[in-house]
Amino acid sequence: MPANGHSIPVITPPSGAHETFTDAKAAVRRLKELYDQACTFLCETFEQSVSGDQPDTRFRAFYPEISLTTTSHAQIDTRLSFGHVSAPGTYSTTITRPDLFENYLIQQISLLFEHHGVAVWIGLSDTPIPVHFAVANEPDITVPQEGAMSFPLRDVFDVPDLSSTNDDIVNGVAQIGENGAGPLAPFTAQRVDYSLARLSHYTATKPEDFQNYVLFTNYQFYVEEFEAFARQMLADPNSGYNAFVGPGHHEITTHDQVLPVLEKLPQMPSYHLKRVDGSGVTLVNIGVGPSNAKTATDHIAVLRPHAWLMVGHCAGLRNSQRLGDFVLAHAYLREDKVLDDDLPLWVPIPPLAEIQIALEQAVAEVTELKGYELKRIMRTGTVATLDNRNWELRDQSGPVQRLSQSRAIALDMESATIAANGFRFRVPYGTLLCVSDKPLHGELKLPGMASDFYKSQVSRHLLIGIQAMETLRDMPIERIHSRKLRSFEETAFL
Question: Packing angle between helix 452-473 and helix 221-235, nearest 10 degrees?
């Protein structure tokens, strides 16, 4: 409130009443209309205000929302892990970027109609859109840093509010809203916008380029293999892949095009082998450490991928292992520490049958080893994830005893984090690692240590990950999204 005691008038675009819809495509069209109207209003008023004196009004626009009310306890198809609410009541969610999430929204809304037989309401919420997010898709508009304008930005426009941007829904601590509605989706619009902005910053690619199947790695070699594979696919008109995108938003559509290399790569460079329907494969080089693994998955989760897998290097803990052997994680020893506050250590991270089978089948197909022979190059068991890369330099009596008691067969710094965040965000997850060193047995990760066997296995490792993803892509998503990942009271949206 200004010093004279008078409140500043607030100008908003026209609102209109909430409307009911029983057609998912029509509902999403209305969401797009409301969102575009709000963003256009904020972009135009911001451009008019940014170079002048402080306006004597405040400009505000709101996210659109979807709401549903059902009074029935009718039993739904219990085989499904999503697409329905758990009890009678009112449920709602704010929506951002309906253009980016169009197919997802149509699918989720259609399931609500199918399972509950009631209409959804579409209208404006009471959650303001921060101006930073409204102008994010306008390349010619940037929001100056605090102090660069002649007036405080937050006095005229809404800015990101971290007090309401959180993971309470996915962490299971969300409360019923002031309007009496429970959550309909796992993320609010502002939480999604926050991650979309972070994704562009950390990966130097657009959220639109991310595909439904995501591979994470901790080694640059896999990037080179991925680009080589992508060029083979672009050279094959029957592959189903139509483009390859690298950092800097550079895209090629034929195998012989040059992909520019950035002088300075982002923190987690990402590469996308695209299909028209978004069912391609994304590779993210997260580097080393659980912090990067958590950061990447925190933000990619809002895109609601159908699966993510870790394909990276690890330390083999058994003398019977060789450099280049594969490790298929069936359990995780979580000592990464970055998720302890969000997902307590007493929460088990179960293996997902569909993912495990796809990975094992992919190893068999690529290596041409079957059944009992597969055990020569692959072990299944516990993967330990630590937050200390140089754990070998500490007193080994403690760590080694824990590793032995847990029956761990491999150790890294990312896999448990990625799996645990997959569990937390209800994204199907899995891990297939390649042994690059054996520190307990004198084979440290040093130049010249790699054998020919190791080199040949690493060159096939990425192909195994891609093959597993292609197997998962051929499955109905109802099978991939396991009920293991759903809690007692879940959001209807996946």
Answer: 50
